[in-house]
Amino acid sequence: MDNKINPKESLVQLQKALDQGVRFIAQGNGSSVASALIDAIAKHNKRNPGEEVLFLNYAAVDPAFTNDRCNFWHFRFDADADMKMEAVTDWVKAQDAIKKVYIIGQDYSFGKAVSAAAVKNLGEKRPDIEIVGNELHPLGKVKDFTPYVQKIISSGADAVITGNWGADMVLLIKAAIDSGYDGPILTYYGGSKGAATAMGAAAVGQVKAIVEHNTNLPMPDAQATYVDGYEAAYPDDNYYYHRIHNAMNMLAMAADKAGSTEPKDVAFALEGMTYESSTGTVTMRADNHQILQPMFMSTFSDNVGRGVEGLPLGWASGEADRIEAESTATDTTCKMKRPS
In three state form, how does the secondary structure of 9-57 look? Predict the structure, then answer.
């Protein structure tokens, strides 16, 4: 169901799904969308005991969703914005040449969370770094990021941190490359569809992304066969959302464990569940329904076995780029209320 990355449209589509008897909702892009869904599903479940719906969130990473706004009916299968920023700023901490950082993001809850986490973490890990820009732009409405990039260049920034995704990610990187910015661009979603083509070889070694998977990581034969099969079936796409793979497998495991496909039973089975992913053990925290999984700092590279978007370019990580699952855990303020 196409929600057009719009909260109001998402609620229309949710109601259509409910009218069809759908009991499991999967959604990712847009914390503004996830926010609306979390509230609407909680209200529906309260009003309709026995007809509850479970929300599987694979990409909306506003930290509030597993903290103050945690909800029994919501499970997140992606690292939240704070968890990802911990990893990004750990990398920055070791880069002595970075003295000035520019933060740019989308003007809504997620973009604001990324900005706040960057300021906090840089202040703690590298207080010598000067934040020379901290800017938010309209979500999904900027067609040309050149004016923003010119400000980045004028600021003298040694590195850029952005949580942008979708077209905002692709267009920002394209403008940066076209304008001659040559500092590292540290992203959450540099691997977004279309980004590699827009960046081209000029971005090799410059653009980095913090991810739970890339197709050049060592993989068991079964996973490599799965990736090959996926990309053969969808030649216009690349295997990117490994967390959806994890989410669907854990959903099936939870249903088997519960001996039921009732959302409440599945939810209780998901709490605390561990799953052996191709990258290592994945655990769903019981206290706030936040996934813990290994993360990787990936670099756009021309030295890869698997390219993306039909290019001899892709994403690569070394052994030092792996962040273990337990290292991604953060404190939670969640006070979850569970159904009886």
Answer: HHHHHHHHHHHCCCCEEEECCCHHHHHHHHHHHHHHHHHCCCCCCEEEE
What whole-number distance in Å separates Cα of residue 209 and Cα of residue 300? Answer: 8
| 3-state DSSP percent of the chain in helix, strand and coil, to 5 | 40, 20, 40
Q: How many CA atoms lie within 13 A of 298 on its CB side?
A: 28
Highest mean pLDDT out of 165-169, 190-194, 266-270: 266-270
Structure tokens at 86: 């911990």
Cα–Cα nearest to 261, from 88, 21, 65: 21
Q: Token match 């969308």: residue?
A: 33
Amino acid found at 174: K
Provide the residue type at 294 as one letter. P
- The terminus-to-terminus CA distance of the chain in angstroms comes to 32
CB 325 within 8 A of CB 283: yes
Q: How confident is the prediction for the chain on average, in pLDDT?
A: 95
Pinpoint the alpha helices (H) of 69-160. 81-93, 109-125, 146-155
Phi, psi angle pair for 288, to nearest 5°: -140, 5
Asked whether this chain's domains 7-79+241-292 and 81-211 adopt the same fold, the reply is: yes
* Farthest CA pair distance, the chain: 60
55 within 8 A of 270, measured Cβ to Cβ: no
Residue 132 has pLDDT above 90, yes or no: yes
Structure tokens at 218: 């060592």
CATH architecture of 7-79+241-292: 3-Layer(aba) Sandwich (3.40)
Q: pTM of the entire structure?
A: 0.90
Instruction: List, in order, residues 6 or more apart from 211 with CB less than 8 Å away.
Output: 191, 295, 296, 298, 315
Give domain limits for the chain.
7-79+241-292, 81-211
As a whole-number percent, the residues of the chain with pLDDT over 90 amount to 90
> Is the distance from CB of 13 to CB of 41 less than 8 angstroms?
no
Superfamily of domain 81-211: Response regulator (3.40.50.2300)
pLDDT over threshold 90, residue 131:
yes
